[in-house]
Amino acid sequence: MAYEHLLIFGGVCVATWCLVIYFWPRLLLYVYKRGLLVKGFGDGPVPINTLYTQPQALFADPLHVTLPAGSSNLMSVGTNRDTLYVVGWLDLSKGPLIFCVPDMAGRYYSVQFTDPSNNTNFAYVGKRTTGTKAGDYLITGPGWKEPVPQAVTRISSPNNSVIVIGRVFVENNTDLPAAYGLARQMQLKPLSH
Question: Which of the four pLDDT bands, split at 50, 70 and 90, describes residue 72?
Protein backbone atom coordinates (compact mmCIF):
# COMPACT_ATOMS: atom_id res chain seq x y z
CA MET A 1 0.00 0.00 0.00
CA ALA A 2 2.81 2.42 0.78
CA TYR A 3 4.17 2.06 -2.75
CA GLU A 4 0.87 2.80 -4.51
CA HIS A 5 1.49 6.53 -4.36
CA LEU A 6 4.98 6.11 -5.75
CA LEU A 7 3.67 3.99 -8.63
CA ILE A 8 0.96 6.54 -9.44
CA PHE A 9 3.44 9.41 -9.21
CA GLY A 10 5.93 7.53 -11.40
CA GLY A 11 3.22 6.77 -13.96
CA VAL A 12 2.17 10.41 -14.10
CA CYS A 13 5.82 11.50 -14.51
CA VAL A 14 6.39 9.04 -17.36
CA ALA A 15 3.16 10.06 -19.11
CA THR A 16 4.03 13.76 -18.74
CA TRP A 17 7.53 13.18 -20.09
CA CYS A 18 6.15 11.30 -23.12
CA LEU A 19 3.72 14.15 -23.85
CA VAL A 20 6.54 16.72 -23.61
CA ILE A 21 8.71 14.70 -25.98
CA TYR A 22 5.81 14.36 -28.43
CA PHE A 23 4.58 17.96 -28.37
CA TRP A 24 7.83 19.92 -27.87
CA PRO A 25 8.96 19.86 -31.55
CA ARG A 26 5.45 20.86 -32.68
CA LEU A 27 5.40 23.73 -30.20
CA LEU A 28 8.78 24.97 -31.40
CA LEU A 29 7.63 24.80 -35.03
CA TYR A 30 4.48 26.73 -34.16
CA VAL A 31 6.59 29.44 -32.50
CA TYR A 32 8.94 29.52 -35.51
CA LYS A 33 6.03 29.75 -37.97
CA ARG A 34 4.41 32.54 -35.98
CA GLY A 35 7.72 34.37 -35.71
CA LEU A 36 8.28 34.08 -39.45
CA LEU A 37 4.80 34.74 -40.83
CA VAL A 38 3.47 37.22 -38.25
CA LYS A 39 6.46 39.07 -36.84
CA GLY A 40 9.20 38.62 -39.43
CA PHE A 41 12.82 39.42 -38.80
CA GLY A 42 12.81 43.20 -38.64
CA ASP A 43 11.43 43.99 -42.09
CA GLY A 44 7.89 42.90 -41.27
CA PRO A 45 6.12 39.58 -41.79
CA VAL A 46 7.46 37.16 -44.36
CA PRO A 47 4.63 36.11 -46.70
CA ILE A 48 4.02 32.43 -47.41
CA ASN A 49 5.80 31.13 -50.53
CA THR A 50 8.54 33.75 -50.40
CA LEU A 51 12.12 33.59 -49.21
CA TYR A 52 13.63 35.96 -46.68
CA THR A 53 17.38 36.60 -46.68
CA GLN A 54 19.12 37.59 -43.47
CA PRO A 55 20.19 41.27 -43.78
CA GLN A 56 23.89 42.02 -44.05
CA ALA A 57 23.78 44.33 -41.02
CA LEU A 58 22.19 41.65 -38.85
CA PHE A 59 24.82 39.14 -39.95
CA ALA A 60 27.72 41.55 -39.41
CA ASP A 61 26.73 42.59 -35.86
CA PRO A 62 23.64 40.78 -34.55
CA LEU A 63 24.00 42.09 -30.98
CA HIS A 64 24.03 45.79 -31.86
CA VAL A 65 21.34 46.01 -34.52
CA THR A 66 18.22 47.80 -33.31
CA LEU A 67 15.11 45.97 -34.50
CA PRO A 68 11.77 47.72 -34.97
CA ALA A 69 9.21 47.29 -32.19
CA GLY A 70 7.26 44.07 -32.47
CA SER A 71 9.85 42.34 -34.66
CA SER A 72 11.69 39.16 -33.85
CA ASN A 73 15.39 38.51 -33.38
CA LEU A 74 14.85 34.84 -34.20
CA MET A 75 17.27 35.14 -37.12
CA SER A 76 20.19 36.21 -34.95
CA VAL A 77 19.87 34.11 -31.80
CA GLY A 78 21.88 30.91 -31.79
CA THR A 79 22.85 31.10 -35.46
CA ASN A 80 26.10 30.20 -37.14
CA ARG A 81 28.55 33.05 -37.51
CA ASP A 82 29.82 31.97 -40.91
CA THR A 83 26.61 31.44 -42.90
CA LEU A 84 23.87 33.79 -44.08
CA TYR A 85 20.37 32.41 -43.65
CA VAL A 86 17.58 32.22 -46.21
CA VAL A 87 14.23 31.07 -44.79
CA GLY A 88 10.67 30.56 -45.94
CA TRP A 89 7.43 28.74 -45.26
CA LEU A 90 5.80 27.10 -48.28
CA ASP A 91 2.17 26.18 -48.89
CA LEU A 92 1.94 23.73 -51.78
CA SER A 93 -1.83 23.25 -51.59
CA LYS A 94 -2.34 25.66 -54.50
CA GLY A 95 0.31 23.98 -56.64
CA PRO A 96 4.03 23.31 -56.84
CA LEU A 97 6.77 25.93 -56.72
CA ILE A 98 10.08 26.17 -58.54
CA PHE A 99 13.09 26.86 -56.32
CA CYS A 100 15.87 28.56 -58.31
CA VAL A 101 19.49 28.54 -57.19
CA PRO A 102 22.19 30.68 -58.87
CA ASP A 103 25.63 29.39 -59.81
CA MET A 104 27.48 29.37 -56.49
CA ALA A 105 30.89 29.00 -58.20
CA GLY A 106 32.14 26.42 -55.71
CA ARG A 107 30.86 28.24 -52.60
CA TYR A 108 29.40 26.08 -49.84
CA TYR A 109 25.64 26.40 -49.45
CA SER A 110 22.92 24.15 -48.15
CA VAL A 111 19.13 24.38 -48.34
CA GLN A 112 17.07 21.95 -46.28
CA PHE A 113 13.40 21.20 -46.87
CA THR A 114 11.57 20.20 -43.69
CA ASP A 115 8.13 18.66 -43.15
CA PRO A 116 6.73 20.66 -40.19
CA SER A 117 4.17 18.01 -39.28
CA ASN A 118 6.88 15.73 -37.91
CA ASN A 119 10.01 17.92 -38.06
CA THR A 120 11.89 15.73 -40.55
CA ASN A 121 14.13 16.90 -43.36
CA PHE A 122 13.07 15.23 -46.59
CA ALA A 123 15.44 16.87 -49.11
CA TYR A 124 18.58 18.95 -49.42
CA VAL A 125 19.94 21.14 -52.20
CA GLY A 126 23.53 22.26 -51.82
CA LYS A 127 27.19 21.76 -52.51
CA ARG A 128 27.32 18.28 -50.98
CA THR A 129 24.12 16.94 -52.57
CA THR A 130 23.51 18.71 -55.90
CA GLY A 131 26.72 20.66 -56.53
CA THR A 132 27.20 24.40 -56.93
CA LYS A 133 26.01 25.00 -60.49
CA ALA A 134 22.76 26.90 -61.09
CA GLY A 135 19.66 24.76 -60.88
CA ASP A 136 15.88 24.72 -60.75
CA TYR A 137 13.98 22.39 -58.41
CA LEU A 138 10.26 21.68 -58.59
CA ILE A 139 8.83 21.33 -55.07
CA THR A 140 5.60 19.35 -55.22
CA GLY A 141 3.08 18.37 -52.59
CA PRO A 142 1.74 14.88 -51.98
CA GLY A 143 -0.23 13.36 -54.83
CA TRP A 144 1.06 15.70 -57.56
CA LYS A 145 1.25 13.69 -60.80
CA GLU A 146 1.86 16.24 -63.59
CA PRO A 147 4.93 15.95 -65.81
CA VAL A 148 8.09 17.68 -64.62
CA PRO A 149 9.44 20.39 -66.97
CA GLN A 150 12.74 19.72 -68.70
CA ALA A 151 15.95 20.73 -66.91
CA VAL A 152 14.09 20.82 -63.57
CA THR A 153 14.68 18.37 -60.73
CA ARG A 154 11.66 17.29 -58.70
CA ILE A 155 11.58 17.38 -54.91
CA SER A 156 8.52 15.58 -53.55
CA SER A 157 7.22 16.83 -50.23
CA PRO A 158 5.25 14.48 -47.98
CA ASN A 159 3.17 17.47 -46.81
CA ASN A 160 1.72 20.64 -48.35
CA SER A 161 3.53 22.73 -45.73
CA VAL A 162 7.30 22.99 -46.07
CA ILE A 163 9.93 24.90 -44.12
CA VAL A 164 12.91 26.06 -46.18
CA ILE A 165 16.14 26.88 -44.34
CA GLY A 166 19.11 27.83 -46.48
CA ARG A 167 22.66 28.72 -45.51
CA VAL A 168 25.28 30.45 -47.66
CA PHE A 169 28.90 30.41 -46.49
CA VAL A 170 30.60 33.76 -45.75
CA GLU A 171 34.38 33.51 -45.72
CA ASN A 172 35.09 36.88 -44.06
CA ASN A 173 33.76 40.44 -43.81
CA THR A 174 34.96 41.38 -47.29
CA ASP A 175 33.15 38.32 -48.70
CA LEU A 176 29.82 39.31 -47.10
CA PRO A 177 28.47 41.40 -50.05
CA ALA A 178 29.18 38.61 -52.56
CA ALA A 179 27.60 35.95 -50.31
CA TYR A 180 24.60 38.20 -49.68
CA GLY A 181 24.16 38.78 -53.42
CA LEU A 182 24.11 35.02 -54.04
CA ALA A 183 21.70 34.40 -51.16
CA ARG A 184 19.33 37.04 -52.55
CA GLN A 185 19.34 35.28 -55.94
CA MET A 186 17.73 32.18 -54.45
CA GLN A 187 14.11 32.51 -55.54
CA LEU A 188 10.74 30.80 -55.50
CA LYS A 189 8.30 31.07 -58.34
CA PRO A 190 5.05 29.30 -59.16
CA LEU A 191 4.99 26.63 -61.82
CA SER A 192 3.30 28.19 -64.86
CA HIS A 193 1.86 25.71 -67.32
Answer: very low
